[in-house]
Design a protein that fits this description.
- The protein contains 2 helices and no strands.
- The protein is an all-alpha fold.
- The protein is rod-shaped.
Length: 74
Amino acid sequence: MAERPEPGTRSGGEPDEAPARTPRWVKVFAIVLGVALLLLVVVALIGGNHGPGRHGSMGDPAPAGLVGVWGGRG
């Protein structure tokens, strides 16, 4: 007498449904995100011109109206 396959399997013992695969857009998004993060880390390690001093004035004199208020000159 021939053996009957178990329910949920094919005659060769393989499952009826293949496991779900990750969509291509998810893989592409993950690669782009990884490259962007890697680029940010490289820029931070190299040094670049980053930090709070980048946004401040570079020795420009204070506006005339604020000189007395902030105790700059005078």
